[in-house]
């Protein structure tokens, strides 16, 4: 059921995640978190969600890495003597319990790519599939919902993202690039 | 007929790509210092990626999609050596000394020495004193691949 | 698959298997990324790992017949390059702060 490719990808993402959690050097953590992002995007790509994969690649591997780099360029990077962090035992326990809860819910999910599912409300899905091209003139139903039916919502999101980007650039310009 | 030639060619290309990527992986894991590693990363890895992408292009055939593959191949051929060069240059600016055949220090010692001599240019590479002192804090294990690695 | 000749199942199997092997090589690269010992080693390892990822995406695009994955591969190739150069540049210009 699970292909060798998926197995290798699982190992890849798992190693990256554990290394991100345990390494002591901040710069190394940033670099490996970028690698983790690459692995996650591969997962999305393998599950045929190219748009999500593209977002993960751009945000996770690109923007986040750059922002974190700028952050530690501004703050101090402490010298370290040991390679690994000593794990916090209660935190590990809490994370493990949470993981078990999440794993229990996995069996309730439908199979990936199951054509029989139309999520919870087939009527609404059918409505959009039928009316979207006529109502909005857009052939892709997802795009129609995103930019047509909930256009104001998307507009608000775009505004928030734009403001966040502006704020980050302003702060960075003052804090990093005009240093000395 | 032509179909089987295409299939065979694609499989051959992918196998070659896998081989060269394997060589590059071995190089990155086994070679003694950052400079030689960046060398293998820029050469063998680029060749491996190039072969595999050529195989993919062969499978896709003459379609508009293939243009993307060729573009990707071009990008990798340009950017991969450039990135390796940038990394090696950064290492040089930071003062990491290259490994030479007449010293058998591990790369950890090289790094410690680079940290020690960043300000002063005096410490002799053969002097194990400061390097050994700094390496004391690190958990002592001698399984570093740079150790016994003897590049033929 | 857009318009091209249909793939033989052999090619699909071979490409998926090759993608798995590439992922294994990428996992092996984590040794260098975690162990270091210098930041440049880590950046180099992640760069090689990113190239592997791009190749895997291209293989998946051919094997699954999903040409959109090639777009992601293009983005990756550029981001990967950008990341390596950005970190190297910072290291040089900040005088070893990073």
Please give a handful of descriptors for the protein shown.
heterotrimer, A: 180 residues, mainly alpha, 0% strand, B: 152 residues, 5 helices, elongated, disordered C terminus
Could you provide a short overview of the structure?
Chain A has helices at about 5-20, 25-45, 50-75, 90-105, 120-135, 140-150, 150-175. Chain A is an all-alpha fold and about 180 residues long.
What structural class do the secondary elements of chain B suggest? mainly alpha
Order of helices and strands of chain C: HHH
User: How many DSSP helices of chain C?
Assistant: 3
Residue share in helix of chain B = 55-70%
Roughly how much helix do the residues of chain C carry, as a percent range? over 70%
**Overall form of chain C:** elongated
Give the overall silhouette of chain B.
elongated
Number of strands of chain B: 0
The oligomeric state is heterotrimer
Q: Return Rg of chain C in Å.
A: 17 Å
Query: Helix count of chain B, per DSSP?
Result: 5
The main β sheet of chain C shows up as: none
Please state the average pLDDT score of chain B: 73
The helix/strand class of chain C is: mainly alpha
Care to count the β-strands of chain C? Answer: 0
N-to-C SSE series of chain B?
Answer: HHHHH
Q: Mean pLDDT score of chain C, rounded?
A: 79
Strand content of chain B: under 5%
Major sheet details of chain B? none
Total number of domains of chain C: 1
InterPro entries (chain C): MrpF/PhaF-like
Organism (chain C): Halovenus carboxidivorans
Main location (chain C): membrane
Transmembrane segments (chain C): 14-31, 43-64, 70-92
């Amino acid at each position: 059921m699970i292909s060798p490719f998926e197995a290798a990808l699982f190992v890849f993402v798992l190693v990256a995640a554990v290394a991100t959690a345990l390494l002591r050097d901040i710069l190394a953590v940033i670099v490996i978190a970028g690698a983790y992002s690459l692995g996650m995007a591969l997962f999305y790509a393998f599950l045929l969600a190219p748009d999500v994969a593209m977002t993960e690649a751009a945000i996770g591997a690109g923007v986040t890495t750059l922002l974190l780099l700028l952050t530690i360029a501004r703050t101090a990077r402490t010298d370290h003597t040991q390679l690994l962090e000593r794990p916090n035992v209660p935190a590990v326990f809490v994370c493990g319990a949470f993981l078990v809860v999440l794993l229990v819910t996995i069996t309730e999910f439908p199979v990936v790519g199951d054509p029989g599912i139309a999520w919870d409300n087939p009527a609404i899905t059918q409505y959009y599939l039928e009316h979207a091209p006529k109502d909005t003139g857009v052939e892709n139903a997802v795009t129609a919902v995103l930019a047509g039916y909930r256009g104001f919502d998307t507009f608000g999101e775009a505004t928030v993202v734009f403001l966040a980007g502006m704020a980050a650039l302003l702060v960075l310009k003052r804090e990093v690039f005009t240093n000395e | 007929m032509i179909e089987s030639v295409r299939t065979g060619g694609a499989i051959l290309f992918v196998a070659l790509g896998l081989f060269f990527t394997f060589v590059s992986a071995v190089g990155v894991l086994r070679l003694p210092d950052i400079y030689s590693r960046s060398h293998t990363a820029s050469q063998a890895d680029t060749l491996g990626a190039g072969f595999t992408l050529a195989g993919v292009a062969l499978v896709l055939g003459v379609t508009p999609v293939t243009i993307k593959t060729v573009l990707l191949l071009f990008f990798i051929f340009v950017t991969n050596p450039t990135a390796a060069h940038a990394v090696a240059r950064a290492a040089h600016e930071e003062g990491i000394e290259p490994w030479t055949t007449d010293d058998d220090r591990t790369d950890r010692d090289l790094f410690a020495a680079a940290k020690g001599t960043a300000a002063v240019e005096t410490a002799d590479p053969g002097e194990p004193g400061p390097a050994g002192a700094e390496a004391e804090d690190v958990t002592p294990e001698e399984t570093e691949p740079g150790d016994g690695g003897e590049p033929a | 698959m857009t318009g091209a000749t249909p793939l033989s199942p052999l090619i699909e199997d071979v490409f998926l298997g090759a993608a798995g092997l590439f992922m294994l090589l990428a996992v092996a690269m984590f040794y260098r990324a975690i162990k270091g010992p210098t930041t440049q080693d880590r950046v180099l390892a992640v760069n090689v790992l990113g190239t592997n990822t791009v190749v895997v995406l291209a293989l998946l695009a051919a094997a699954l017949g999903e040409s959109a994955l090639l777009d992601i591969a293009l983005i990756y190739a550029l981001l990967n390059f950008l990341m390596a150069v950005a970190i190297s540049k910072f290291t040089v210009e900040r005088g070893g702060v990073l």
